[in-house]
């Protein structure tokens, strides 16, 4: 593919912008879920009907504002997965199969991130009309929130493979080996969370140590680490592109960027 050097620089700037937008979306999701909806710590699965009704009716307007914020923030995986796709495709050997797999699973996974606040929003909407139905939507929302969809490990292992098979120097790569190890940890961790479908108490219940607190504790540092690594790599890519002289060949520019020919005129 023939690309103008300035076009690549503009693309890199847009990728940076998307990463910063993702930071804002993650913040909106967290503020909505934990600040306005007050779902930290999460209500236990053993909550009675009266206790669930109290959660929604005690601060209903504020809760619904939190739902809106969380719904807006749930779009975060779309731009984030797109930037990761671009950076994976840049270093993947041959056709970017793993990059596309990561993008597709990230896009589908967005629906599952959107689903819990939507279910809680409906529970709040119907809480006065039929509390038992609202409680069912409340519980379903938590199941969707905690139990990982099958797409999530596939997306993460795609990143892991790239991190360990790329030819790029770890010092400048968007996916250094340490990101691969951290992502592998994230990919294996969801196994225990499937227990939230079965258990209502203990470490694998949806409010338990293994199903909630450890994943939440790992999620933030992982997202931040990958984002910072990508931003650092984009800065290095810009530096290489700006140092390219007019007389340099497209192949030499491609080798500077990622060790593979990327035709830039």
Give an overview of the whole structure.
70% of the residues lie in helices and 0% in strands. It has 265 residues and is mostly helical. The longest helix is centred in the C-terminal third of the chain and has 34 residues. It is elongated, with a radius of gyration of 21 Å.
Q: What's the helix-strand series?
A: HHHHHHHHHH
**What's the number of domains?**
1
Number of strands: 0
Q: Which structural class fits the helix and strand makeup? A: mainly alpha
Shape: elongated
Give the termini separation: 10 Å
**Strand portion, in percent?**
under 5%
Largest sheet: none
Q: Any key phrases for this structure?
A:
single chain; 265 residues; mainly alpha; disordered C terminus
